[in-house]
């Protein structure tokens, strides 16, 4: 499991295309490289859950509510999500 600590800075988010930097950080954090170019309809349930979680975090929301975010995920994905949530605290 990779641990990705980089976060898109506020300056990067404000730049044109800054959301792409943030999306890349989130896809690395949730280990989405294998399916980030697939249509959402072709994804497994676990992959769709990762996509929804990444979508919730993108854009710098101050509050993100997650209801059973790890349901249907394997151990590695659960751990990656735990690390991501911890890294997003107080940002």
UniProtKB/TrEMBL annotation:
Skewed-composition ranges (Basic and acidic residues): 1-15
**What are the residue boundaries of the ABC transporter domain, all occurrences included?**
20-71
Does the record's keyword annotation contain Repeat? yes
User: Where are the stretches annotated Disordered?
Assistant: 1-23
For this UniProt entry, the molecular function terms from Gene Ontology, in alphabetical order, are:
ABC-type transporter activity; ATP binding; ATP hydrolysis activity; lipid transporter activity
Source species, domain of life: Eukaryota
Example of a GO cellular component annotation carried by this entry: membrane
InterPro entries hit by this protein: ABC_transporter-like_ATP-bd, ABCA, P-loop_NTPase
* Keywords, comma-separated and alphabetical: Repeat, Transport
Task: State what protein this is by name.
Answer: ABC transporter domain-containing protein
Give the organism, scientific name. Answer: Teladorsagia circumcincta
Q: Lineage from the top down?
A: Eukaryota, Metazoa, Ecdysozoa, Nematoda, Chromadorea
């Amino acid at each position: 499991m990779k641990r990705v600590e980089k976060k898109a800075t506020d300056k990067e988010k404000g730049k044109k295309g800054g959301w792409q930097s943030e999306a890349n950080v989130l896809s690395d954090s949730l280990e989405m490289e294998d399916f980030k170019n697939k249509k959402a309809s072709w994804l497994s349930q676990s992959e769709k859950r990762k996509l929804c979680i990444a979508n919730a975090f993108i854009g710098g929301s101050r509050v993100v509510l997650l209801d059973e975010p790890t349901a249907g995920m394997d151990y590695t994905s659960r751990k990656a999500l735990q690390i991501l949530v911890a890294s997003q605290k107080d940002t």
